[in-house]
């Protein structure tokens, strides 16, 4: 079964609030068996319009990644992020 991934590109405008959100997502990550394989760090935009904050979360399956993103636990964490920046997030199936 292919793994599932949540890929996010973010612009953070309030690091303190964003940090609260990031910490709160651990509840949903643990529930759905996810773990970060990319979370911030050094990056270089090679083409297009990139951002400096990129996150890749790996899950055992697409269904688990979907469950994480649509869970009440993630929804509660997301509320903590309001006003702290912008986020583009997708769920993809691995190969």
Task: For this entry, give a set of tags.
95 residues, alpha+beta, 3 helices, 4 strands, 37% helix
| CATH A-level architecture | 2-Layer Sandwich
Low-confidence stretches: none
Over all CA atoms, what is the radius of gyration?
A: 13 Å
Going across the major beta sheet, what is the strand order? Answer: 2-3-1-4
Apparent shape: globular
* N-to-C SSE string, H for helix and E for strand: EHEEHHE
Largest sheet: 4 strands, antiparallel
Percentage of residues in DSSP E strands: 25-35%
Using the coordinates above, name the CATH class. Answer: Alpha Beta
How does the helix and strand content classify structurally?
Answer: alpha+beta
User: How many H/I helical runs?
Assistant: 3
What does this structure look like?
Helix content is 37%, strand content 32%. The model has no long low-confidence stretch (mean pLDDT 96). α1 (15-31) packs antiparallel against α3 (72-81). It is α+β, with helices and mostly antiparallel strands and 95 residues long. It has three helices and four strands. Strands 2-3-1-4 form a four-stranded antiparallel beta sheet, with helices on one face. The protein has one domain: Alpha-Beta Plaits (2-Layer Sandwich).
Question: What is the fold's blueprint, element by element?
Answer:
Layout: E1 4-12, H1 15-31, E2 35-39, E3 53-59, H2 62-69, H3 72-81, E4 85-93
Antiparallel strand pairs: 1-3, 1-4, 2-3
Helix pairs in contact: 1-3
């Amino acid at each position: 079964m292919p793994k599932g991934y949540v890929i996010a590109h973010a612009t953070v405008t309030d690091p303190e609030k964003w940090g609260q959100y990031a910490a709160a997502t651990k509840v949903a990550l643990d529930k759905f068996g996810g773990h970060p394989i990319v979370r911030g760090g050094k990056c270089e935009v090679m083409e297009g319009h990139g951002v400096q904050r990129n996150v890749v979360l790996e899950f055992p399956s697409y269904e688990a990644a979907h469950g994480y993103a649509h869970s009440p636990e993630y929804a509660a964490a997301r509320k903590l992020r309001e006003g702290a920046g912008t986020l583009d997030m997708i769920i993809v199936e691995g190969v």
